[in-house]
Specification:
Elements lengths: L7 H6 L7 E4 L3 E5 L7 E7 L6 H7 L1 H17 L5 E4 L15 E5 L9
Antiparallel strand pairs: 1-2, 2-3, 3-5, 4-5
């Protein structure tokens, strides 16, 4: 499994940094965001390091599919039927940790367009 020793999310996935884990599978980990933007705000990451969602799709499409399934399971576990699944790709899009992660946002009405 490929991990980046300097990556925050690799350290969380490896158990070196604690997190409020909501769900985990062999290839994914879901944990609460430390700065929630909605009543439910959970991050879902692959355990293996990939910079962004496009990189993950190219290198490990089955893991990307598992990541989306994990996100759906998180939403169901949180009791929310309607949720937003967000992947930020690149600094200008708001990506601040360069380890692909999906934001599961829900528990309130979402506006459009997003900010």
């Amino acid at each position: 499994m490929t991990r980046d020793a300097d990556c925050l999310f690799c350290k969380i996935a490896g158990g070196q940094i604690p997190a409020d884990v909501v769900r985990e599978t062999e290839h994914t980990l879901a944990f609460r965001d430390i700065s929630p933007q909605a009543p439910t705000h959970v991050l879902v990451v692959p355990r293996e390091h990939h910079r962004d969602v496009a990189s993950l799709a190219a290198a490990a499409p089955d893991t990307l599919a598992e990541l989306v399934r994990t996100a759906a399971a998180v939403a169901a576990g949180e009791g929310i039927e309607a949720y937003r699944l967000v992947f930020n790709t690149g600094e200008q899009a708001g990506q601040s940790v360069f380890h692909v992660h999906a934001h599961v946002l829900g528990g309130r009405a979402m506006t459009w367009p997003p900010g």
